[in-house]
């Protein structure tokens, strides 16, 4: 039996820190003060730098300060939202004191605080969803990618009432200007969060020595060549379309960057986006009409969103595969342990009966020779002690090899079958056998040790695969679950060779281990051949909730 290979290292995931998934402890402490001081300096510099891309309205079409804000919230937690809002107020007061005189100061303060609150609420909500594992979409690093896209959009939505009813704050006077100004707000923040926040967090991981940064292998030359070729092809095709009089066409570049992200992950996508941004941003700085600048930045934002989310999705898939491989290793270790347990049960059963007889006879011999003081009496006493020691050892082995299941917890039968499907499909495919799994009611719950119970079902599936893999054009193996009389009944059905003999009760070692696990969970396991030649293994477990 060979252990599964170790999975390849995965890139940094930029996870949302578990210690910051609560809004408690709103007062900064410890390293928070240093992070806020650095943020004040960075926010001021980024705000000043963004002025070159400002339009006729209040908002900039390239706002790197938004990326710094998101990075700080993601790293230190949404609990710092009030402190970040205070820092931005102080920085704006130092750099642009005139804005507090041009409009009623309460509205000015609200205009500064509003986007910070929107970012904080978005980060807290995504952290809550990711923490609860409420959707596959929240496999790391997808939560960060979603936060980088949704936080600017939430800030824009929060700005709509103020832009409509307080135009004096934003410098716009009609509906069209409001729309343009809000679009500029969204585009500027999107470019800032998606392009600035990732490297800031990666640098923080590298400095701290975490995030898997040191374990990352260097990129392969073939990957670098493919990335460069795809990106240059997209840029070249876009230029050809523009030269042909079709206007600015971002689609070729978008497809190229998305391809790079899906193939090689976020890091490759970000460096591809770096090339695109360095190509576009300098041309849009300084003297350029706002509509033309907005058009180019809208196209750029679309490319950045598609590329980064594509890379995040690819990395999330790699994370899921690594998790599956880790679970496969745990199952492999559980299988070895269960096999050892099954063997110990057999040994204990064979040894216990003669040992009991020997213990009785040794104790009787010791009593008969207790009054004597010779070698026979001393030998009898020694035998009695050694037999008692051996009996104690057998009792310890019985506890180790017993059928008690540890750490039981509610497990959805549907989730159990999903795990079995992920593990069984690869093994069955290698043997040239198809495995089908019928839909399972998501409300069926059993009390189980998830790894052990998965191992039990996998043993039955492996038996089925071995039974049909030598058959020409084998029929698929069918897995299904039914609920009846408070039981979840898992069926593993296959068509075996006609000359294959099914032992009574299926007492192969795999089935024996599976039966030990199932009985430890209060269930039953049977295996039989039906009249039509179908072999049916049936595993029944008590349900704790049926709807």
What does this structure look like?
This protein is α+β, with helices and mostly antiparallel strands and 547 residues long. The protein has helices at 31-49, 65-76, 81-95, 105-131, 142-165, 167-170, 175-208, 221-246, 251-264, 266-284, 290-368, 375-401, 413-430, 450-468, 509-520; strands at residues 409-412, 435-437, 445-448, 477-484, 487-495, 524-529, 534-545. Strands 1, 2, 3, 4, 5, 6 and 7 form a 7-stranded mixed sheet that branches. The radius of gyration is 33 Å and the shape is elongated.
SSE succession: HHHHHHHHHHHHEHEEHEEHEE
In this structure, how is the largest beta sheet organized?
7 strands, mixed
Kindly state the percentage of residues in helix: 55-70%
* Number of DSSP-assigned strands: 7
What characteristics describe this protein?
single chain, 547 residues, alpha+beta, 15 helices, 7 strands, 64% helix, 8% strand, disordered N terminus
Itemize the secondary structure elements and their pairings.
Elements: H1 31-49, H2 65-76, H3 81-95, H4 105-131, H5 142-165, H6 167-170, H7 175-208, H8 221-246, H9 251-264, H10 266-284, H11 290-368, H12 375-401, E1 409-412, H13 413-430, E2 435-437, E3 445-448, H14 450-468, E4 477-484, E5 487-495, H15 509-520, E6 524-529, E7 534-545
Parallel strand pairs: 2-4
Antiparallel strand pairs: 1-3, 3-7, 4-5, 5-7, 6-7
Helix pairs in contact: 1-2, 1-3, 2-4, 2-5, 2-7, 3-4, 4-5, 5-7, 5-11, 7-11, 8-9, 9-10, 9-11, 10-11, 11-12, 11-14, 11-15, 13-14, 14-15
């Amino acid at each position: 039996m060979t252990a599964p290979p170790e999975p390849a290292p995965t890139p940094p995931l930029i996870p949302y820190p578990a210690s910051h998934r609560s809004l408690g402890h709103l007062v900064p402490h410890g390293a928070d003060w240093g992070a806020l001081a650095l943020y004040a300096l960075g926010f001021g510099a980024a705000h000043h730098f963004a002025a070159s891309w400002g339009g006729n309205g209040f908002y900039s079409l390239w706002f790197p300060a938004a990326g710094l804000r998101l990075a700080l919230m993601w790293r230190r937690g949404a609990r710092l939202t009030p402190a970040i809002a205070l820092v931005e107020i102080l920085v704006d007061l130092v750099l642009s004191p005139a804005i507090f005189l041009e409009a009623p100061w309460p509205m000015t303060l609200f205009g500064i605080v509003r986007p910070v609150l929107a970012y904080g609420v978005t980060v807290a909500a995504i952290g809550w969803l990711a923490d609860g594992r409420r959707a596959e979409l929240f496999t790391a690093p997808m939560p960060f990618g979603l936060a980088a896209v949704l936080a600017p959009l939430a800030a824009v939505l929060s700005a709509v009432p103020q832009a409509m009813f307080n135009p004096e704050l934003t410098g716009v006077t009609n509906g069209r200007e409001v729309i343009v100004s809000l679009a500029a707000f969204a585009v500027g923040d999107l470019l800032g969060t998606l392009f600035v926040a990732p490297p800031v967090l990666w640098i923080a991981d590298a400095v701290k020595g975490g995030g898997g940064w040191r374990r990352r292998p260097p990129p392969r030359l073939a990957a670098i060549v493919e990335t460069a070729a795809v990106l240059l092809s997209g840029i070249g095709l876009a230029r050809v379309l523009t030269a042909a009089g079709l206007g600015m066409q971002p689609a070729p570049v978008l497809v190229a960057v998305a391809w790079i992200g899906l193939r090689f992950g976020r890091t490759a996508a970000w460096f591809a986006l770096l090339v695109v941004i360095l190509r576009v941003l300098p041309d849009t700085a300084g003297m350029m009409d706002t509509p033309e600048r907005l058009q180019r930045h809208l196209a750029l934002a679309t490319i950045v969103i598609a590329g980064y989310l594509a890379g995040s999705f690819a990395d999330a898939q790699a994370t899921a595969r690594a998790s599956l491989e880790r679970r496969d290793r745990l199952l492999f270790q559980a299988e070895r342990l269960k096999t050892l347990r099954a063997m110990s049960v057999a040994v204990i059963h064979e040894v216990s009966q003669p040992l009991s007889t020997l213990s009785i006879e040794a104790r009787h011999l010791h009593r008969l020779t207790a009054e004597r003081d010779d070698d026979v009496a001393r030998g009898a006493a020694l035998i009695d002690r050694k037999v008692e020691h051996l009996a104690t050892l057998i009792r310890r082995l019985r506890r180790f090899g017993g059928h008690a299941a540890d750490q039981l917890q509610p497990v959805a039968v549907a989730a159990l079958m999903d795990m079995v499907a992920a593990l069984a499909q690869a093994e069955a495919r290698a043997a040239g056998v198809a495995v089908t799994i019928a839909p399972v009611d998501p409300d069926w719950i059993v009390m189980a040790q998830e790894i052990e119970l998965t191992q039990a079902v996998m043993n039955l599936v492996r038996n089925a695969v071995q039974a049909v893999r030598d058959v020409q054009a084998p029929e698929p193996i069918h897995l299904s679950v039914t609920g009846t009389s408070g039981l979840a009944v898992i069926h593993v059905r296959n068509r075996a060779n006609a000359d294959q003999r099914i032992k009574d009760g299926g007492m192969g070692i795999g089935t024996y281990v599976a039966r030990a696990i199932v009985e430890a969970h209060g269930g039953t396991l049977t295996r039989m051949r039906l009249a039509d030649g179908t072999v049916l293994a049936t595993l029944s477990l008590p349900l704790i909730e049926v709807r």
